[in-house]
């Protein structure tokens, strides 16, 4: 037993001692696996350690030699490269220890484990193949005892292998190392007798080769209890742990590699976007490429012609010169004629500025480069200037062509001191516009609805030296636009484009396109085969008045207030000279309002008279005065707040901008006048509003019966058209209602 204890101690010391080296460099000389040879090989002065140290010194000497050679070659420029050289040497010196540890220590630690696992697998396979060979079984138990004594105990107690004296010795050694021998010792506290003699007797029989008798059968008696030992798989199977670590390392490397590749691709894509306008090939992205317009490539999607542009004949006529220049430049250069470098299209949103630019490219059959002003700027300074350069470089390669910048006010507004990045983009655009020659065939066009804020350097002659205004279409233009959008739709007989154009003053091309589209969707929902005038009227009301909210709950009292309020507006508009004709009156909630009166001018207006402005003031006052007359001063509501706000702004516009005040005189007043002038303005505005209030009050008192009649009709029908209103109010205005009422009363009597 003393010998077993001593051997076990030597095994334990060999497994857990050593200065970071592995005990498996030793070569076993005999079947007892003596530990003395392992300890000898693991000393700091061993051959393996000396080899590693020599390799490290060799690497270090090579680094020093390379450094010295580079220093001698670059001796003439030492002053310039000395800081960089010191930096590189510092990095090498700092990384050397980590490299040595990674390249030598970790690998040398893993290599013995791998060899030991291979040896153990070989011994297990040989022992399992020859269960009656006691020598092979003993060799396996000796090897297992070095790493997992618990495995020796389990294998020995299976009783299905031959065992000799060496195997019994290894079993006893495992019992001592794991302290399992204590189970066979006597316990004075519980009075348990010692079972060690029986154990030794059984081991003696087993060593003699007697395998027929029961040997160490657990659980057959109190002396032989069944012991359950929990074994840590990580401690008992180092090969599994190494495989898991290797797999996790490989997976981590794959994930990091994928992230690096994705990051590199994203960076390449972004770098391509900075200067890739007009570029093509591998690495370029279509999302950053220019939207080039060409008849042969995309004739249906992008190419437009002057046939597709309606409602702006004057602008088209001016731009026909540009098309002729692109098609036949010799016609102009022969007489030393020069076409403008830049053409600036101005006008309200939706009038067709972008469509005109596309039509020029389609008529001339040249590439069309489209960029929005906001697309030049990014979060990085200098990106806008680079994109401007790339845009013009691509255009020069495709000349003759047209460059169109939409909403140029995003980069071409008046320069401010604190807008450095925008100034750089604008400076580059100015340079490019001055840089290319007239005969290169590049035409720069831009559009904006805010021409007043553009930088004067951009709009001067020589850059954007031709300004073309694209106005909203007149009645004839609206009719042409409607006919263009209705030509591919089945129409009912009651559809009249001319009448619809007359009833849509102020509508631009985008509004009319939206109107036709809403009507087509309405017809599809209703399931009709043709587009009718009713659906077009529905679309017009939806654009002008907003979407109906029929499901909104409104009390009877609130509905009555709304009816009288809107009736007051309608009666004032119907009986006041200069007011626009009424289009429709409704008390159905639309948008954010509970009701409204819509008015449409009979003709296109180019200017507004004072009479018309005063009529608008009177119409604004009609709702508040009607509430006061019918319900009393204490029951007026807040629904007139928007009307009063509009009336006040209109009165200020008349006094300050239009000089329609006799007290102040013909003076244009700035937005922030002095205190004395502001006081006079406020007094004049209040005077104009009070006069309008009293005029409306007198008018509604005179037509109070008509007010009741119209309000009752609204409560009954909720929406009244212009014809309905005329049918109700016309008898009261001509004075025929009293005569008709007297005749009816006489007939009844």
Automatic annotation (TrEMBL):
SMART domains: AAA. It is found in: Mitochondrion membrane. SUPFAM superfamilies: FtsH protease domain-like, P-loop containing nucleoside triphosphate hydrolases. GO terms for cellular component: chloroplast; mitochondrial membrane. Its cofactor is Zn(2+). Residues 339-474 form the AAA+ ATPase domain. GO terms for biological process: protein import into chloroplast stroma; proteolysis. The chain crosses the membrane at residues 246-267. Keywords: ATP-binding, Hydrolase, Membrane, Metal-binding, Metalloprotease, Mitochondrion, Nucleotide-binding, Protease, Transit peptide, Transmembrane, Transmembrane helix, Zinc. The keyword Lipid metabolism does not apply. One of its GO terms (molecular function) is ATP hydrolysis activity. InterPro entries: AAA+_ATPase, AAA_lid_3, ATPase_AAA_core, ATPase_AAA_CS, FtsH, P-loop_NTPase, Peptidase_M41, Peptidase_M41-like. Pfam families: AAA, AAA_lid_3, Peptidase_M41. PANTHER family: ATP-DEPENDENT ZINC METALLOPROTEASE YME1L1, METALLOPROTEASE M41 FTSH. In the N-terminal section; belongs to the AAA ATPase family. In the C-terminal section; belongs to the peptidase M41 family. NCBIfam families: FtsH_fam. This is ATP-dependent zinc metalloprotease FTSH 11, chloroplastic/mitochondrial-like.
């Amino acid at each position: 037993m003393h010998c077993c204890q001593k051997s076990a101690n030597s095994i334990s010391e060999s497994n857990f001692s050593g200065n970071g080296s592995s005990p498996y460099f030793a070569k076993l000389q005999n079947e007892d696996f003596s530990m003395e040879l392992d300890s000898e090989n693991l000393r700091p002065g061993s051959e393996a350690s000396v080899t590693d140290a020599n390799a490290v010194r060799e690497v270090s000497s090579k680094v020093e030699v390379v450094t010295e050679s580079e220093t001698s070659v670059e001796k003439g420029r030492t002053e310039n490269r000395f800081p960089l050289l010191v930096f590189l040497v510092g990095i090498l010196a700092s990384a050397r220890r980590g490299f040595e540890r990674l390249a030598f220590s970790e690998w040398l630690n893993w290599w013995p484990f791998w060899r030991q696992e291979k040896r153990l697998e070989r011994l297990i396979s040989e022992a399992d193949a020859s269960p009656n060979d006691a020598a092979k079984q003993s060799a396996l138990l000796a090897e297992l005892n070095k790493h997992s004594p618990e495995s020796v105990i389990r294998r020995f107690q299976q009783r299905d292998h031959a065992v000799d004296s060496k195997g019994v010795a290894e079993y006893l050694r495992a019992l001592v190392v794991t302290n399992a021998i204590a189970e066979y010792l006597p316990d004075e506290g519980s009075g348990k007798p010692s079972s060690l003699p029986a154990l030794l007797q059984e081991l003696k029989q087993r060593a003699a080769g007697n395998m027929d008798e029961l040997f160490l059968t657990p659980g057959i008696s109190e002396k032989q209890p069944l012991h359950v030992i929990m074994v840590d798989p990580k401690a008992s199977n180092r090969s599994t742990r190494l495989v898991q670590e290797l797999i996790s390392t490989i997976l981590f490397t794959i994930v990091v590699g994928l992230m690096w590749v994705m990051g590199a691709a994203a960076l390449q894509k972004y770098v391509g976007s900075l200067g890739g306008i007009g570029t093509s090939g591998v690495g370029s992205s279509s999302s950053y490429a220019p939207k080039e317009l060409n008849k042969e490539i995309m004739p249906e999607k992008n190419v437009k012609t002057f046939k597709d542009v309606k409602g702006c004949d004057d602008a088209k006529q001016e731009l026909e010169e540009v098309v002729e220049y692109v098609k036949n430049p010799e016609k102009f250069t022969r007489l030393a004629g020069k076409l403008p470098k830049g053409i600036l299209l101005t006008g309200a949103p939706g009038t067709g500025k972008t469509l005109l630019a596309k039509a020029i490219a389609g008529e001339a059959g040249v590439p069309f480069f489209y960029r929005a002003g906001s697309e030049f700027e990014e979060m990085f300074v200098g990106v806008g200037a680079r994109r401007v350069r790339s845009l013009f470089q691509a255009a020069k390669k495709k000349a003759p062509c047209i460059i169109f910048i939409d909403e140029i006010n995003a980069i071409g507004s008046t320069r401010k001191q604190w807008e450095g990045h925008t100034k750089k983009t604008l400076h580059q655009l100015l340079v490019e516009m001055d840089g290319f020659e007239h005969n290169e065939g590049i035409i720069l066009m831009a559009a904006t609805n805010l021409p007043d804020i553009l930088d004067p350097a951009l709009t001067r002659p020589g850059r954007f030296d031709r300004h073309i205004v694209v106005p909203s279409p007149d009645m004839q233009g609206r009719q042409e636009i409607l006919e263009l959008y209705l030509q591919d739709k089945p129409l009912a007989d009651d559809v009249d484009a001319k009448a619809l154009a007359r009833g849509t003053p102020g509508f631009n091309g985008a509004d009319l396109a939206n109107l036709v589209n809403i009507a087509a969707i309405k017809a599809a929902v209703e399931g009709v085969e043709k587009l009718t005038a009713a659906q077009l009227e529905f679309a017009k009301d939806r654009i002008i008045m907003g979407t109906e909210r029929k499901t909104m709950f409104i009390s009877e009292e609130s509905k009555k207030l709304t009816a009288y309020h809107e009736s007051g507006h309608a009666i004032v508009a119907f009986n006041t000279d200069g007011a626009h004709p009424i289009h429709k009156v409704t008390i159905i909630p639309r948008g954010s309002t509970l009701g409204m009166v819509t008015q449409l001018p009979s003709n296109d207006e180019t200017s507004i008279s004072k009479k018309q402005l005063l009529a608008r003031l009177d119409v604004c006052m009609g709702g508040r005065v009607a509430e006061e007359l019918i319900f009393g001063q204490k029951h007026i509501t807040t629904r007139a707040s928007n009307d009063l706000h509009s009336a006040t702004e209109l009165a200020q516009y008349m006094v300050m901008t239009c000089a329609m005040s006799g007290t102040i005189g013909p003076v244009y007043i700035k937005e922030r006048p002095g205190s004395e002038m502001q006081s006079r303005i406020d007094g004049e505005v209040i005077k104009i509003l009070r006069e309008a209030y009293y005029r409306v009050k007198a008018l509604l008192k005179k037509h109070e019966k008509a007010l009741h009649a119209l309000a009752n009709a609204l409560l009954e029908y909720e929406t009244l058209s212009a014809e309905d209103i005329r049918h109700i109010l016309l008898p009261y205005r001509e004075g025929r209602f009293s005569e008709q009422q007297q005749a009816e009363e006489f007939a009844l009597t």
